[in-house]
Specification:
The structure is a homodimer of 223-residue chains. With 223 residues, chain A is mainly α. The first copy, chain A, has 10 helices and 3 strands. In chain A, a hairpin with a 3-residue loop joins strand 2 and strand 3. The longest helix of chain A has 24 residues. Chain A binds a DNA duplex (30 and 30 nucleotides) through helix 3.
DNA sequence: ACGCCTGGATTGTAGGACAATATCATCGCC
DNA sequence: GGCGATGATATTGTCCTACAATCCAGGCGT
C-alpha cells in the first residue's frame, strides 16, 4: 500500500490541501489508484500525516473536479467513466474545441500567435513518441489552442471534460501507429490556425476528435 | 443583517451542508447578497448555528459551482461576472445549447418526447409574465431541452454556465416587451424540436441565445 | 431460508485551540 | 505634512478529540 508519497516534505502552511490533492490526482491519473478504489479518510490521514480536515477538503476538491465520486455516509471512490460518459464527453469536446480552434484561427494579436507557435513547436518533431510523452504533448497542444482562443471560461470548462481521466483509462492501448496519426492531425490543426483559416481549423479539430473518440470507445468496449 | 433563514428548522443529520448551500445560493441569486459581499466563516457559523466544518464545506461547494470566489487567507466573496465573463459564457452556451437542441430534435423515444411536451406546456400560455416567473420558466425550458437531448454530461456542464447568476445580475432590467419576445423564441425552438427538425432547432436556439447575449451585454455595459 | 438485530467501520458534525497570514491604523522619520 | 515601518486585529488554515448517525456484514432466532 505504499503510495510513494508518504514521506515527502511537509508543505508550507496553506499548501496542505493542495499537496494532498496533487498526490491523489497523480495516483489516480497514473492508475496507482484504480477506478472503484475506496478513499478512506482514516487511511489518508495516516498516509499524509494530517488531520481529517484537510483530507476531507481534498476529497471535496477532487469530487468537484470529477475525479472521484462521493456517496453520503459511504465515502469516496475513484470514478470510473462508462462508455456512455466517454461518448458524451467527446460529443461536447467536439463542439467546445471546435469553437476554440475557430477562435484561435481568428485571433489577431501577433504576440499571442507567436507564443502559440512557440508552445506547439514540439509537435513538429518527427521522432516517434512514447505513449506517456504523447499524453503530455497532447494535453499541452489542446491547452495552447484554448489559450490562443482567448476564452477563459472555455479554458476553465475544459478541465471538466476529463481528458486526462479518459486517457488514463484507455491510454494504455495507444500503439505507435495511432500516435503517429494523432501527431499528424495536430499538425493539420496547427497549420490551419497559423494560416488564420477558421473553417479549416474547426474542421481539422473535429476530425481529430472524432477519430480519437472512436478509438477510445473501441478500446473501452473491449472490456 | 437578518437573512431570513436564521431560525429555520435544523435539518436532519447529513443535510447540514446542503442546507447551508441552499440558503446561501438563494441569497446570492435573489441579490440579498450583492456581488463582492464577503462571506465570513464566523458570521456564517453564528447565523446557521453550526460549526466551522460544514460552513467551510458549503463555501467550497459554492466555489466549485462558481457562485463565489475564494482567495487564500482572504476568504470568500460573492462572485461578480464581468462583461467579458458574460460574453464568453454566452459564446459557450451557443455551442452547447445548440447541440442540445439538435440532439433533442433527433431524440426518438416517444415517451421522452411526451414528457418534454408536457414540461414545456407553460410556454404556450399567452398571458403576460412577471419577470421572476419568466426567469423560472426560462430555466425550466432550457433544462427540459437538455434532458430530452439525453446527454448527462451536458446537463452537468450547463450548471457551470451560470445562467442564474447572469440573470440575477441583469434580470432586473427585463421589460414586458423583451419577455414577450423571449417566449416567442422559446416556442419557435420547441416547435422545431417537436417537429424533429434538428437544423431548425439548432438555428432557433442559437438565434435566441444571440439575442439574449446582446441584451445582457447591453444592460451590463450601462454601468 | 428468511428476516431481524447487533456490532464494527466510516462518515458527519461539534467545539476548542493555535499558527499563519492579511488588513488596517498608528507612529516615527525624513 | 507625506511616507514607510510597526503593531493590533480580523480571518483563515490546520490540528485534535469526541460523539452521533449511518451503512454493511454477519450472526441469531424463527
Amino acid at each position: 500500500m505504499d503510495q510513494s508519497s508518504t514521506a515527502s516534505p511537509p508543505p508550507a502552511h496553506g499548501a496542505t490541501v493542495a499537496h494532498i490533492v496533487e498526490r491523489l490526482r497523480e495516483d489516480i491519473l497514473a492508475h496507482r489508484l484504480s477506478p472503484g478504489a475506496r478513499l478512506i479518510e482514516s487511511e489518508l490521514t495516516a498516509r499524509f500525516d494530517v488531520s481529517r480536515g484537510p483530507v476531507r477538503e481534498a476529497l471535496r476538491r477532487l469530487a468537484a473536479e470529477g475525479l472521484i465520486a462521493h456517496a453520503p455516509n459511504r465515502g469516496a471512490v475513484v470514478r470510473r467513466l462508462t462508455a456512455r460518459d466517454i461518448s458524451e464527453l467527446f460529443e461536447i469536446r467536439l463542439e467546445l474545441e471546435g469553437l476554440a480552434a475557430r477562435r484561435a484561427a481568428e485571433a489577431g494579436d501577433a504576440c499571442e500567435r507567436e507564443r502559440f507557435a512557440d508552445a506547439i513547436r514540439v509537435i513538429f518533431d518527427d521522432a516517434p513518441r512514447l505513449a506517456c510523452d504523447y499524453l503530455a504533448e497532447n494535453a499541452d497542444f489542446h491547452d495552447a489552442v484554448m489559450r490562443l482562443a482567448g476564452n477563459r471560461q472555455l479554458q476553465d470548462l475544459s478541465m471538466r471534460l476529463h481528458l486526462p481521466l479518459i486517457m488514463a483509462q484507455v491510454g494504455a492501448a495507444l500503439t505507435a501507429e495511432v500516435l503517429r496519426l494523432s501527431v499528424l492531425e495536430h499538425r493539420a490543426i496547427a497549420k490551419a490556425i497559423l494560416a488564420q483559416d477558421p473553417n479549416g481549423a474547426t474542421a481539422a479539430m473535429r476530425a481529430h476528435l472524432e477519430r480519437a473518440a472512436a478509438f477510445a470507445l473501441a478500446r473501452e468496449e473491449e472490456e
